[in-house]
Amino acid sequence: QVQLVDSGGGLVQAGGSLRLSCVASGRTFVNYAMGWFRQAPGKERDLLARINWSGSSTSYADSVRGRFTISRGNAKNTVYLQMNSLKPEDTAVYYCAAQRSTFWYDERPVDYWGQGTQVTVSS
After folding, report:
1. Contact yes or no for 18/26 (Cβ under 8 A)
2. How far is CA 53 from CA 5, 42, 50, in A?
3. CA-to-CA distance for 71 and 88, rounded, in angstroms?
4. How far apart are CA 104 and CA 112, in angstroms?
5. How does pLDDT run along the chain (123 residues), one tens digit per residue?
6. 97 within 8 A of 37, measured Cβ to Cβ
């Protein structure tokens, strides 16, 4: 069993930055590929960024590529999402997710979810 705790959300002005963190319990963090999702009110939960077990491979949704960066620190059981040049349309609840795999596969289900952290970007 893995527990994920998201943090780092808040209120920021457009153009600003935030860094989200997700800490995983347990000693098997390296067995999981990690992802960050977000869900705005009335919309589906969308996958934004993926990272493999070692951090050597990342990929992004078009909506955030060039502005957001996913990274991980396996020694700290933590995955990060650095968000720069934030826009009002980035307002959503952000969730980290774990998939028991060395690389993330979109067609596979998420094994564990964080509880979510709210990000609000004002114009």
Report:
1. no
2. 18, 32, 10
3. 23
4. 13
5. 899 999 999 999 999 999 999 999 977 999 999 999 999 999 999 999 999 999 999 999 999 999 999 999 999 999 999 999 999 999 999 999 999 999 999 999 999 999 999 999 999
6. yes
CB neighbour list of residue 77: distance below 8 Å, 6 or more residues apart: 23, 24, 25, 26, 29
Write down the residue that tokens 């955030």 correspond to: 64
CB 48 within 8 A of CB 101: no
The CA distance from 30 to 61, in Å, is 23
Burial 76-95 (b: 16+ CB within 10 A, else e): ebbbbbebeebeeebbbbbb
Structure tokens, 40 = 């705005």
